[in-house]
């Protein structure tokens, strides 16, 4: 693999704050054209890692290149090649959607067409509306419009769908899929496991400032993580077995109970289950986890 | 979003970036638009001196200050000076504090916009609003309140440099002071009292000579006093100079103090300005 195939390369990233070590040695490669999702509980180091890659913070240790450049030395030309959609924004309330999008287009050497981008995020009916009057979902779509107006090679999306209703999230996902189709590399941080499963080519799980696993949504958690689980209830209490042959297991149970099996359930772990197991395995407190999963 | 289409991505070539000046002028346009759309700014920064000039000339309508100078004439230069200080110092200190708190500055820092462009936008905003405010004050004072507007070129030359030094020093000090409020919400509450206090001590609302000596001494350390005195030299009759403390307009000293504040403000602003919130680490 040549350097041209790598959009982001991180080796041994360490970032300390006065009161704690936020990132304790993270390695990461993101390929060009890939959608990479960064998962992890609150305070795990996701935002710090992302902000180092975006050039907002300096790493204390480590080798970092983003589009071939050390973000700490990123100049205006480098900035014109990336796009950032940060968490919730409420700035520039008195300007209209069209005014903002075309103004930001003026920052870039080869921007996309503002009207096209407005239509693409579905805000053409709101183009003359001041941003103060947009709903949360509309404001988020405006943020994405501002993030992609410069036609970035690499787009950072920080928890883009927090607070969306399910329909708005589906629509938002379609936007991201379109970008991927066009070849934009995307680094997505999210709390929603189904979002990562739906959008990401690969997923990295961060906990306690360390990358505990990287894989495709299908292979995360290693071999066997997706094995079916059969659970039921009997006089001794609840039982659960992991098996590659759930049908045979159910047939055996039917024979044993001579008919209906109490509380019978057959399921395959979702990405969310696997993620929770991964996090639990490194000993993160459940209180932190709750925040992470919803 | 039902009619979703893909956009045509322009080819990424090594096109040059837009120049900081071009982006800065585009920001100026945006800043002015926002200023006139925000009611709070409009009332407390733009119309405030005009409203006060109206009130003061009505309240003291029977009072003659000296040499046929009536209330409207006496307070016009003070309100012009005050207006300059509001559109530069107060306006920038409050809006930049809010823009930092709302993460607008962080967003801008994440784009290829040059920091220079941001400041060109702010300076353009200050110039546009203070010129418009001054013009409006002049029209109202001259036409509605019967204030004599000077015609001698030398007075207008003095006006020019006092105006430029006043807006420039007010702007850099406003940029520096924007780091003081801890949040955007607190910005007005922190900045406005400072401005009010300076206005009272610098003789914007009273006859400067009638203020207690200690208060005049304190005000001499700050730019607004010199700005107001300079404006009095332009808009009050020459005979009024005798009523100034020390019997002089003190234009030379004023120029020096304002220039010192300009340089100090520039140095402090460069050191303390930040693009992210304080709690952002």
What is the CATH topology classification name of the largest domain in chain A? Rossmann fold
Give the C-level CATH assignment of the largest domain in chain A. Alpha Beta
Largest sheet of chain B: 2 strands, antiparallel
Q: Please count the beta strands of chain A (DSSP E, at least 2 residues each).
A: 12
First-to-last CA distance of chain A: 37 Å
**Sheet with most strands: strand arrangement of chain B:** 1-2
Return the average pLDDT of chain A rounded to an integer. Answer: 88
N-to-C SSE series of chain A?
EEEHEHEHHHEHEHEEEEHEHH
Which structural class do you get from the secondary structure elements of chain A? alpha/beta
Major sheet strand order of chain A = 5-6-7-3-8-9
- The gyration radius over C-alpha positions of chain A equals 22 Å
Notes on the protein architecture:
The complex is a heterodimer of chains A (294) and B (281). In chain A, helix 3 crosses helix 4. In chain A, strand 1 and strand 2 form a beta hairpin. Chain A has 2 domains: 213 residues, Rossmann fold, CATH 3.40.50.300; 66 residues, no CATH class. In chain A, the strands form 3 sheets. Chain A has a 6-stranded mixed sheet, sandwiched between helices. Chain A is α/β, with parallel strands linked by helices. Helix content of chain B is 68%, strand content 2%. Chain B has a two-stranded antiparallel sheet with strand order 1-2. Chain B has 281 residues and is an all-alpha fold. In chain B, a hairpin with a 2-residue loop joins strand 1 and strand 2. At the A-B interface, helix 2, helix 3, helix 4 and helix 6 of A face helix 1 and helix 4 of B.
